[in-house]
Amino acid sequence: MDTRSTCPYCGVGCGVVIESDGARITGVRGDPEHPANFGRLCSKGATLHLTAAPEITRQARLLQPMQRLQRDADPVPLAWDGALNLAADRIAGVVQAHGADAVGVYVSGQLLTEDYFVFNKLVRGLLGSNQIDSNSRLCMSSAVAGYKATLGADAPPACYDDLAHANTVFIAGSNTAWAHPIMMRRLEDAKRANPAQKWIVADPRRTETAAVADLHLPLLPGTDVALFHGLLHLLLWEGLTDAAFIAAHTTGFDALRDRVREFTPKHVAALCGLPEADVVQAARWFGANTPTLSLYCQGLNQSSHGTDKNAALINLHLATGQIGKPGAAPFSLTGQPNAMGGREVGAMANLLPGHRSLASDADRAELAALWGVPPVPAAPGRTAVEMFEAAADGAVKLLWIACTNPAQSLPDQAMVRRALARAEFVIVQEAFADTATARRADLLLPAATWGEKEGTVTNSERRISRVRAAVPPAGEARPDWQIARDVGRRLEARLDPRRADGASLFAFESAEQVWHEHRATTVGRDLDIGGLNWAMLDAAPRQWPLPAGAADGLARLYGDGRFPTPDGRARFAAPAWQDVAQPRDARFPVALTTGRLRDQWHGMSRTGLLGRLNDHAPAPALAMHPQELDRRGWRAGDLVRVRSRHGEAVLPVQPSATVRPAQASVPMHWGEEFVGGQTADGRPLTGVNALASPARCPQSKQPELKHVAVRVEPA
Ligand code: SF4
């Protein structure tokens, strides 16, 4: 039996066909009709069925609700009704004793749009707080803030077809070949069809993507804004800007022109550590070998100046008029499979459903009217790291964590462990039983996962795809939206008993019903899908916007030169260049950056279960330039202790010319459950993010996971 669905890993959003006998998943293949991948799958997508094998399910899945009666005790099973009542009792107790702001709900870009929607309605509609955030904060929040600051809306303007139309592809802070492999296949197709297409890659590391580029700019970590300002300086100097577009469709260019005046090629080459001629070449291709498409990801986003980096790159497109045309746009690559859907339903501390803004009284009133609840407060909730810091400080008393593993993925792991220890109650809703966060939970709620649940996701090009169940959930697992609904109904009985069943905020019996309510929140907004219905989505994935009366979604945005700002013009930003939050110094002389491996996904709770995927890189290693090893007398495989101001990790070192001297790189995937548990001298090891700094972008609040200063010593 074949069931069409979507890959649950990255934001490319490939279509899959799940093969099953109705009870067990037996295979997977790419969906030849899905416009994201046309039948192709990468190594992760092609092995999805193996992660649903019975032995993996028995070994790794959370199969029934469990309660930990003491923090250091083994959890014991309990029935669903008791688990849901316990969750509701503890949440209601905290709300009544300390107020709704003492409950922190931390969700995930892995959730489906419908899951996200119900969680958000529970926090905003029922609890009346804004204390919900998503692990998308670690992934895309700088892209969101960059789009909104310049183009006026959180909307990637391009589509995948633009890869084939571009003559120059500028890839900044993205190892597309490993992080978005099917997108890379499409780029390779484009280059085969158009050998004149130029690829420029700006990345401190010589990644697999950089290695096949026409021009690699190995800029020093954190110097992206300086590079982008330098490119604009050159575009102006060489007459490659579009004065007519700037005059007709933008504001703020004079301030930006003043800002970039000092970013001469010589200055930029020195700041960024690049040959001057390469900066000049990049500017000429960007401005003259058009159309130009920029692809960018975590190298820009995971930065203490992530919003500035995004805005400075978008400036280049506005200044050259390279937007709104086939092959021309700034195009953020979404990290997680449904970071877009989470933003659409507003399940982040500073957002509201339908791309509404907390800062707008009208938007808050509109949402209140849609749901029949009082308006939420205007003050944003705590963002991801802030939520855990507040728990560590005692202000957040209860954490409800769904489909994510903050005890591995957040920066400043020592703080996260304090937060999980100090919280009065920790609820973890998970598909997998033994994540680092699950080990610290008081209550474990088993969630259905890929192949077992219904709903929708939105990929990088704004395309909404159906996710479908091929088999029933394993054990007693339930879909995330149903768990949130059932806790919500119980909370209504405890906190708002006037809501009889008929007036419940959670009168949903299917994912389709949740989606219909989500759709209603989009009408009249930039992401309007009022013209889309479930039957259309069942037939084929669709891009937003697709308002009532439209025959199909819009492939690319801003073709008419109008932007969703009050005056219809895009806004140039003129940020100053600022260095990384922790520059190298005498005590911490090495710049450490992190990145993805080809065959692993995030914290490896799924991909780490398969030997076939582990074979690519069975253990984490610290990559350092061969000169650094020679100078210290180290050999490949020697254990080294990597210390930052926040923590330490012991890792084998590997020589690699992909990084410069005084730099190092480590894969992001490993936490305590995969690296062993203690250092050679018996101290606990908390994974690679033990090293990461909590420094974050002041606008997006996205942490600087891409850079921290470290020192490296013999272990
Ligand atoms: Fe899945 Fe991304 Fe690979 Fe496509 S490219 S198969 S969405 S992991």
Automatic annotation (TrEMBL):
GO terms for biological process: cellular respiration; nitrate assimilation. GO terms for cellular component: membrane; oxidoreductase complex. GO terms for molecular function: 4 iron, 4 sulfur cluster binding; metal ion binding; molybdopterin cofactor binding; oxidoreductase activity. Keywords: 4Fe-4S, Iron, Iron-sulfur, Metal-binding, Molybdenum, Nitrate assimilation, Oxidoreductase. Transmembrane segments: none annotated. Residues 1-56 form the 4Fe-4S Mo/W bis-MGD-type domain. The keyword Iron applies. Its cofactor is [4Fe-4S] cluster; Mo-bis(molybdopterin guanine dinucleotide). It comes from the Bacteria. Belongs to the prokaryotic molybdopterin-containing oxidoreductase family. NasA/NapA/NarB subfamily. This is Nitrate reductase. It comes from Rubrivivax albus. The lineage of its organism: Bacteria, Pseudomonadati, Pseudomonadota, Betaproteobacteria, Burkholderiales. The chain holds residues 1 to 715 of 932 of the full protein.
